[in-house]
């Protein structure tokens, strides 16, 4: 009894948060899945949806727009994740041994993280304006100035690889963050280990290959998880740069139009469920792995 | 349970880089880093230069030139259009971040110092709440806000209070994480001594824990302020014309084809000033939030 009295007050103190998380996270996720399994394709409150199983989940693959948005999301994810990972790693690598004015560099590389995608989207839409030749502005105009006219292209309006262009602002925005993660990782490698490797006859590259890089694996995994889940739900950036155009449609914008333009809650919920599933597939194993690791140490 | 990177802010490198292979390497790195600084600042240049141009210089051929005549015309128009949104954003982000910090502090305290059976499992369940794409709860959330608002007699859907509620609830996981990781560093003996002296849970929180919580509060308040200020997804689903925060207003202004570039850019800068100021003045705390958010994104 005294034991219970020892922990009960604590439980009571967190109980408001427990209830909120239970309702708003788990309850609403469940509600959303339930809605996705009904035929509620209208917003009229009086007509409740009938349970239709996974009909919406399979049916949506018959829609051309869904296929497009999935393809867009994949292209975006590949370019964004690879780009931010490589650039972030490179910046950290260049800085890890200490450099003059390091704080200044860090401040510049990280500042986009403090700004919204909506604000940066404004300037990127200008930079990636698709006009070429006489009317070119933005980067196309800049290419013209420096005599690289052949580089001018449609950017995000390119029908095949437009989403690769859409990933550029995202790389710009997030690579500073990845740099900070890697920098912490680099600096977390004990100097004694590097020294020991040198004593054993490793050259500088050998030290990186055999000591530093293996120790960066956990950081790389974290970075991948962070970038991946940002990428799969990307919404603001696409809206800010190109609005609701089908040419840059991703699941999150498709869901938005399903709810507000097509007034189809079941379809919106289906798309939302797919977004959640795509993230859960790799985040849940990561969280469990993380929890186990925490218990071991 | 904590991510390996969490809380490990990059310390500055040893002042004298050990055994540098001559000066050349350092110079190469410095030049490369400076090049990246230039690339990173291109959007900033465009924003500033364009925002000070008069309409008469809105010509693709002069797109990258400095203004011939500097004018704040665009700034005053942009301010007029954006002001209600900025006011709304402050009404959202100030109370929101304070409530978030209070809740996070209580939860973090209990989960680190006043644990109950199952506290670890609960914490993992909380953490999952950070990773879910919010699209997955958005459609039922709108419905819940309508119903809850009716029941309570407050306008939750379409008003600022609803948006505050949403941000506070979905901010619980990250705030709890930051406070928990911070409180873990307080020696258990201190808490135990206070207990022996007859102080209860709240008394100990008030007189032992809160007085040393300053940095954690700074990190959480800055983190929540920034994410509430920059959020677009919740705002676009939960607010209406009178309660639109900055991001939604900015998107409407910049998305209209009739808005000249100079005004779009000025509006984008105005919308980013508060978070930029926080970032520049309190970057250290912002950094720590980011590192804790390595588990988030």
Description:
Chain B: It is found in: Cell membrane; Membrane. Chain B: It comes from Microbispora triticiradicis. Chain B: Pfam families: BPD_transp_1. Chain B: This is Carbohydrate ABC transporter permease. Chain B: The chain crosses the membrane at residues 27-48, 86-109, 121-142, 162-183, 204-226, 232-254, 266-287. The complex is a heterodimer of chains A (297) and B (297). Chain A is mostly helical. Chain A folds into 2 domains: 33-62 and 264-297, no CATH class; 68-255, MetI-like (MetI-like fold). Chain A has helices spanning 2-36, 55-59, 64-95, 102-110, 117-127, 138-145, 162-187, 191-199, 204-215, 217-232, 236-242, 251-260, 265-296. In chain A, helix 8 crosses helix 9 (204-215). Chain A is flat and about 75 Å long. Chain B is built from 12 helices and no strands. In chain B, helix 1 (22-51) crosses helix 11 and helix 6 packs across helix 7. The model of chain B is unreliable at 1-11 and 14-20 (pLDDT under 50).
Element layout with pairings:
The complex is a heterodimer of chains A (297) and B (297).
Chain A: H1 2-36, H2 55-59, H3 64-95, H4 102-110, H5 117-127, H6 138-145, H7 162-187, H8 191-199, H9 204-215, H10 217-232, H11 236-242, H12 251-260, H13 265-296
Chain B: H1 22-51, H2 73-113, H3 119-131, H4 135-152, H5 160-183, H6 188-196, H7 201-209, H8 214-230, H9 233-238, H10 246-255, H11 261-281, H12 283-292
Family (chain A): Belongs to the binding-protein-dependent transport system permease family.
Protein name (chain A): Sugar ABC transporter permease
Subcellular location (chain A): Cell membrane
Class computed from helices, strands and strand pairing of chain A = mainly alpha
Distance between the termini of chain A: 31 Å
> Tell me, what is the CATH class of the largest domain in chain B?
Mainly Alpha
CATH third-level topology of the largest domain in chain A: MetI-like fold
Largest sheet of chain B: none
Low-confidence stretches of chain B: 1-11, 14-20
Radius of gyration over C-alpha positions of chain B, nearest whole angstrom: 24 Å
């Amino acid at each position: 009894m005294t034991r219970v009295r020892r922990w009960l007050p604590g439980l009571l103190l967190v109980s408001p948060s427990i209830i909120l998380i239970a309702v708003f996270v788990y309850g609403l996720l469940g509600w959303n899945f339930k809605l996705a399994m009904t035929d509620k394709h209208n917003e009229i409150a009086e007509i409740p949806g009938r349970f239709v199983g996974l009909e919406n989940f399979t049916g949506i693959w018959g829609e051309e727009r869904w296929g497009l948005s999935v393809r867009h999301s994949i292209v975006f994810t590949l370019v964004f994740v690879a780009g931010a990972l490589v650039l972030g790693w490179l910046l950290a690598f260049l800085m890890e041994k200490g450099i003059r004015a390091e704080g200044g560099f860090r401040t510049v590389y990280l500042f986009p993280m403090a700004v919204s995608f909506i604000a940066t989207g404004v300037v990127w839409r200008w930079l990636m304006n698709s006009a070429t030749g006489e009317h070119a502005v933005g980067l196309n105009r800049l290419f013209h100035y420096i005599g690289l006219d052949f580089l001018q292209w449609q950017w995000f309006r390119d029908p095949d690889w437009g989403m690769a262009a859409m990933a550029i602002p995202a790389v710009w925005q997030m690579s500073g963050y990845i740099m900070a993660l890697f920098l912490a990782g680099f600096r977390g490698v004990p100097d004694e280990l590097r020294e020991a490797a040198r004593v054993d006859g490793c050259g500088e590259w050998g030290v990186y290959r055999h000591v530093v890089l293996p120790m960066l694996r956990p950081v790389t995994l974290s970075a991948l998880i962070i970038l991946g889940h940002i990428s799969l739900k990307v919404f603001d950036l696409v809206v800010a740069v190109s609005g609701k155009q089908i040419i840059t449609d991703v699941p999150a914008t498709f869901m938005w139009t399903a709810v507000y333009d097509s007034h189809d809650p079941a379809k919106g919920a289906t798309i939302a469920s797919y977004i959640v599933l795509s993230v859960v597939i790799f985040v849940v194993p990561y969280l469990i792995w993380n929890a186990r690791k925490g218990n071991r140490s | 349970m904590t991510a390996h990177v969490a809380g490990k802010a990059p310390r500055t490198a040893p002042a004298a880089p050990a055994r540098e292979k001559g000066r050349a390497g350092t110079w190469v790195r410095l030049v490369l880093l400076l090049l990246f600084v230039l690339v990173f600042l291109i959007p900033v240049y465009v924003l500033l230069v364009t925002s000070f141009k008069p309409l008469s210089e809105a010509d693709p051929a002069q797109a990258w030139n400095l203004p011939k005549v500097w004018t704040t015309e665009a700034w005053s128009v942009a301010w007029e259009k954006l002001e209600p949104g900025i006011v709304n954003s402050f009404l959202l982000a100030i109370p929101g971040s304070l409530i978030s910090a209070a809740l996070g502090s209580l939860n973090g305290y209990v989960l680190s110092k006043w644990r109950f059976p199952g506290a670890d499992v609960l914490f993992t369940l909380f953490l999952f709440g950070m990773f879910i794409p919010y699209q997955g709860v958005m459609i039922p959330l709108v419905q819940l806000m309508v119903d809850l608002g009716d029941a309570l007699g407050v306008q939750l859907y379409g008003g600022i209070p609803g948006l505050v509620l949403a941000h506070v609830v979905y901010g619980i996981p990250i705030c709890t994480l930051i406070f928990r990781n911070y409180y873990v560093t307080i020696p258990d003996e201190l808490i135990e001594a206070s207990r022996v002296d007859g102080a209860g849970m709240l008394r100990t929180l008030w007189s032992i824990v809160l007085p040393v919580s300053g940095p954690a509060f700074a990190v959480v308040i800055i983190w929540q302020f920034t994410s509430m200020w920059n959020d677009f997804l919740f705002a676009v689903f939960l607010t209406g014309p009178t309660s639109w925060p900055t991001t939604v207003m900015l998107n409407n202004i910049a998305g209209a084809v009739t808005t000249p570039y100079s005004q779009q850019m000025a509006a984008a800068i105005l919308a980013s000033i508060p978070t930029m100021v926080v970032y520049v003045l309190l970057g250290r705390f912002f950094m720590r939030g980011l590192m804790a958010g390595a588990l988030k994104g």
